[in-house]
Structure prediction request, 377 residues.
Amino acid sequence: MKMNGLCKVTTWVKVLPFYLFTFLPLHAQTVSSVYQPGVTAEGAVYFLPKTAITVTVTVEKTTYTPGDLCQYAERYLRIKDVSPVPSFGYRITAIRQEASAVPDTTKRYAVKFDPKTAAANIRLSDDGVLLGINTERKEESGKWKENTPGAGHLGSNISPSPKPNPRQYMNEETLAAGSTAKMAELTAQDIYDIRESRSLLVRGQADNMPKDGEQLRLMLSQLDLQDRALTSLFTGTYERDTMEQAFTIVPDERAESQQPIVLFRFSQKLGIVDADDLAGVPYYINIENLRSVPPSAPADPKKKQKPIYGIYVNIPGRLRSTLSDGQRPIMAEEFPAGQFGNVELLSGALFNKRYTTRLQLNPLSGAIEHLDAELPR
Prediction:
């Protein structure tokens, strides 16, 4: 884990599943600095969420393997600048970012229960984030879906399809050649014969023309495969693997600096390297508080604080996450962010025998998604 002014950077991402708690009734609530989320002697303890940004980078690795006959490529096939040295390189093919929820440990609250009032059904995420009261929504996700262009598996490696063995297309004379030079000469002649046969088929001048279009397509496809396989003995082969790596940013609402930070560095020879590795070109992320919610008035320290009853919820602000390579912006997206907003109190009067209250919170921002209170019949 690295700390860098505005936020902390990690290389993990965790989806927040949920589980169900059924407790005695909701009665009172105070800020808790001792208890952990879940069941306590006082009742229940919960967190409100804050927003984390996960940036997923897709990198393609290309590996070049020289062919066995590469030194004869220019002599027999007129192909210049064929390297006899193996090499590999990397390039970034895609970058995406999405938001997810993590517990805000500065917003931890304890709910007390009183057996004299109506029962409350409180749902928490696996990390103790409050999801709802008296609701049974089954599919919960602490991820922001509107800005997720595609799902990826972190650290995945997509292997290329197997390449054909060019020697299976060589005839007996070529395989029995006494020298590499002779093998190259015979292989090149086979390549020219294949290309001539393909040309005659295309022009309709072959001695044995196929009976229909499908048979013609299959014959041309097989000739193309043989051409590519034998030519690769001269030009070499390229294999491509695709990998993904993710970086999670947790913006800090207390940070004053809005300067971009280095998320990672990228090298065409090494791929993704650490943010402090000067072998790569830096890629930056800038988290901007859009200040969409006015700050709440501070409490007067001279006034005596009365006991507070109810449920705290977020009034989330918004943030803008901008990715750049130091020369130009790559993408910029906005997300709700509980850490850039305020906390408001829902009166405890909503959660007593007079009402059947259902509260649903947004799992990402901690804001109210649905609230209704019904009088008992």
